[in-house]
Amino acid sequence: MRIVFKTDYMQDIRPWKDGYQLSLYLLLLAVAIAAPWWLDDFYLGELTNVLIWAIAGLGLMVLTGHTGQASLGHAAFLAIGCYANIILVEAGVPFMIAFPVAGLITGIIGATVAVPALRLHGIYLAIFTLAMSILMDDIIVLAEPITGGVAGKYAPPVGVFGFMVDRWGTPNEFYWLTLGVVVLVTLGYINLLRAPLGRSFIAVRDSEVSAQAMGVDISRTKTISFGLSCMVTGWAGALMGLYAGAFNNETFSVVISIQLLMMIVIGGLGSIHGAFFGAIVIGFLPQFLSISKEYVGAVFGGSTVAIPGLEFGIFGMILIAFILFEPMGIYGRWLKIRTWFELFPFYRKDMFKRQKSYLKTERLR
Amino acid sequence: MSLLELENVTLKFGGLTAVDDLSFSVEEGEVFAIVGPNGAGKSTVFNLISRFYDPYAGKIRFNGHDLLQVKPSGVAAFGVARTFQNIELFEHATVLQNLLVGRHRHRTTNLLSEVFFSSSAKRQEMENREKVEEVIDFLDLQAYRDKMIAGLPYGVRKVVEVARALSTDPKLLLLDEPASGLSVEETADMRWWIDDIRRQMGITVLMVEHDMGLVSGVSDRVLAMADGAKLALGTPAEVQSHPAVIEAYLGKAS
Questions:
Q1: DSSP letter assigned to residue B63
Q2: Does the keyword Cell division apply (chain B) (predicted)?
Q3: What pLDDT sits at residue B10?
Q4: Among A28, B134, B178, B187, which residue's Cβ finds the most Cβ atoms within 10 Å?
Q5: pLDDT at B29
Q6: Interchain CB contacts (distance < 8 Å): A and B
């Protein structure tokens, strides 16, 4: 076990524990930047997809993992971000301006929606946001002149610092663009968590009455959290639109909302790592399933006909297994494994005994 | 002028009068205790001062400001901090993070400077850490600094709650049953701390407590309540021997 001897407040304020940890993350970043040289185009595309999901997961994590407000409607904000970005690009706005603005628009819409929504707690908030997700489908169809309705829209190649970036034409550049957004969002998130606002999110999640007694304005904090969450989700949506190439009212369905929530629960609520772990599961599971299905078919001589609903069945089972056996998600399990190695042979089974799952916003009402 | 004044405060829940025309004032620098049987309305008085409830009638003034004009989250800004009877800590955060939330009322940075962690945000964090470390030293919490609340024993949580309230740099500290559920040793510690909070830090303390040993040991004045109304007000000895108080606790001699 590494023990860091602290002699300076900055050692706690800095996001990394010590030089060793920092170098590990820098190494990971270097490996990620070099991905186009060690991955073929297919897997690079999949990796891009995982990163986009991770951005969306980070967005939802702010709201659900750190502020304790469940949302089943984040696909609606993916849609808003996606359409806002493409509509701005089509109107001749350069992508480098359209992209941040698309996120801002989503954030402002999200914060506006939050004002009535956050009077609701727990399950009622989940129902409200679910309705929002269902409504968005119809709104896109009704607003046909702007959104293209059922026929949908196509994502044109976009210019980034003078390079033309396109999912299919230049997958490497598109991957780096996504990676850049991931790094920036993650850094902003880390900064927020070590500043008063991030701590007030956690305060609201864990005890609204005492947060209030400490001078935290509950509704204001929740609204800011909703706004930030939607802004990041909007950026993920914009990238998702570019990645898909074509999209219509059905692209961002309720299923995506549920998948998003599942993703952060599986990854581990209340941690930045959790968003990434969850994205890896959600992103690679369909591929893993189709590969293993072929394998099972080859070994046992069964047919390779697609089984309807197989993917969601397996997702559901994984989710139930996590809620039952590891409510802290993959990140929670990872912490336990790491502690086991660090303390070997002194790890005790009940060391993490007292943890409960989050999402208990109704507790005080 | 008194630090905290309650004037004819009445609170009704439906047909039940929880606080009945209550008036008292707390002077700067004193330790003021409220005692009374269960259901007397002691914690309700705290919740009225914290603005969780709106009084039916009456006035609450703190340091010359009308507290009834501010939101619940605005009370802390005047320098009123409190603890809760059933500990309300941020369970899934470390002790240090809990105490840092107590610094929230001194926040001067905005969203943008926090997202980019500008030099002003960094400076603010350093200042917050300095203040919080003073409190940690004062209450002997060094061993628990980076521990999660969820794994701490009850007695320590009680102290962490006092520490979080002290981190806000309050003028008035409301302690809701600081010694409930504590062992004899822990209660003795709490007694010295309350004494030091008043003497060293110059903070006025208003507390609700059942432990008469603690109450008579630290408080300058005691208010006895029953059924939401004032029974007696005076020094601990005066209140303990007051006939109405004895009657409320033990019943009438037949």
A1: T
A2: no
A3: 93
A4: B178
A5: 92
A6: 118
Q: Which residue ranges form the domains of chain A, and what is each CATH number?
A: 1-33 (no CATH), 34-364 (1.10.3470)
Query: Is there a contact between B75 and A215 if contact means CB atoms under 8 Å apart?
Result: yes
For residue A145, say if its preceding peptide bond is cis, omega within 30 degrees of 0: no
Asked if A137 contacts A268 with a C-beta cutoff of 8 angstroms, the reply is no
Q: Does ipTM surpass 0.90 in this model?
A: yes
- Within 10 angstroms of residue B41's Cβ, the number of other Cβ atoms is 23
Lowest mean pLDDT among A142-156, A198-212, B51-65: A142-156
B115-150 tens-digit pLDDT: 999 999 999 999 999 999 999 999 999 999 988 898
| Minimum CA–CA partner of B93 in chain A | A202
Backbone angles phi, psi at B33, to 5 degrees: -110, 145
What confidence score (pLDDT) does residue A16 get?
Answer: 87
- Per-residue pLDDT tens over the stretch B70-118: 999 999 999 999 999 888 999 889 999 999 999 999 999 999 999 999 9
Expressed in angstroms, the distance from the first to the final Cα of chain B is 44
Domains in chain B: ranges and CATH: 1-79+170-254 (3.40.50.300), 87-167 (no CATH)
Q: At what angle do helices A196-206 and A171-193 cross, to 10 degrees?
A: 80
Q: How far, in Å, CA of B146 to CA of B93, rounded?
A: 9
- 3-state percent helix, strand, coil for chain A, nearest multiple of 5: 75, 5, 25
Please give the Cα distance from A141 to A122 (Å, whole number).
30
Each residue's pLDDT tens digit, B40-76: 889 999 999 999 999 999 999 999 899 999 999 999 9
pTM for this entry: 0.90
Per-residue pLDDT reduced to its tens digit, A8-54: 888 888 888 888 989 999 999 999 999 999 999 889 999 999 999 99
Q: Are A289 and A313 in contact (CB under 8 A)?
A: no
- The candidate with the shortest Cα–Cα distance to A63, out of A202, A261, A196, A225, is A225
pLDDT for the residue numbered A365: 37
**For B59, how many CA atoms within 13 A lie in the half-sphere containing its CB?**
10
Counting beta carbons within 10 angstroms of the beta carbon of residue A34, is it exposed (0 to 12), middle (13 to 18) or buried (19 or more)? exposed
For residue B238, the distance in angstroms to the closest alpha carbon of chain A comes to 33
Question: Tokens 């102290």 correspond to what residue?
Answer: B159
Four-residue CA torsion sign, B90, B93, B96, B101: negative
Amino acid at site A240: M
Q: What is the pLDDT of residue A360?
A: 41
Q: Which residues of B touch A9 (CB under 8 A)?
A: 125-126, 129-130
Burial A118-153 (b: 16+ CB within 10 A, else e): beebbeebbebbbebbeebbeebeeeeeebbeeeeb
* Packed helices A218-244 and A95-117: angle between N→C axes, nearest 10 degrees: 140
Model confidence at A306: pLDDT above 70: no
User: CA nearest B110 in A: which residue?
Assistant: A197
Question: Rounded to an integer, what distance in angstroms lies between the CA atom of residue A59 and that of residue A225?
Answer: 10
Q: How far is CA A102 from CA A1, A30, A232, A315, B200, in A?
A: 45, 29, 10, 31, 54
Contacts of A207 in chain B (CB under 8 A): 88-91
